[in-house]
Amino acid sequence: MQYNKDISNYQGIIPAFYACYDAKGNVDGERVELLTKCMIEKGVKGVYVGGSSGECIYQTVPDRKKTLEHVMKAAEGKLTVIAQVACNNTAESRKLAAHAESLGVDAIAAIPPIYFHLPEYAIAEYWNDISDSAPNTDFVIYNIPQLAEVALTMPLFREMKKNPRVVAVKNSSMPTQDIQNAANDVIYGMCACHGNLYGVIKEILRVRSGLDIGGVRKPLPDLIPEDMEKVKKCADMIDKAIERYII
Questions:
Q1: Is 170 annotated as catalytic?
Q2: Is 142 a catalytic residue?
Q3: In the chain, what are the domain boundaries?
Q4: Which of 21, 120, 153, 201 could lock 214 by a disulfide, CB 3.0 to 4.6 Å apart?
Q5: Catalytic: which of 10, 18, 126, 142?
């Protein structure tokens, strides 16, 4: 059977989706839905669920399934949904891939296996095994070498292009980062906090949008009171950048 690619779903702004927790640190379906609806209201094209911003390596398979289920429920077909399904073993990754396809996501994505340095043929087999568990769904390669310590090389990419479901690469390698000064000032400000970057981002969401999706999961460090002035400063910088650059 010929697999037909349609990349029109991936044109536009598709931000990463943040992990949403209750006061006890459990995945909060209601907050997941609130964040999803917030994304729709902001006019983005879609969401990328279960990646670094989703704290995937600290979540269980049930956590990740629950998050995606509530995203899909709230999205109601209004967003392109890409689900990052990789775990550090093939079996659980395949379960998440099949689950994502059963929910009707537009694409699944996967980082390479981390910790052990595998040969490229093993990485290709890992990605293709995951893709085979969602045979009717697009596949996105996630290249983030600064965290995975595995880079997408041209030979590996050529091998993966043999898979007809591969439609894109999410390239988060350092040389491709946007170095616009206004954006960098915000990023540096967020990174200067004691609390983890994603915790800072969530607090900025609360300050700017009144959206409370909880903190971060340990061992990621929580914000401390001394962070709050820095958070407010970052929120102010974002407001000024939007006023200046957004038409």
A1: yes
A2: yes
A3: 7-177, 178-247
A4: 21
A5: 142
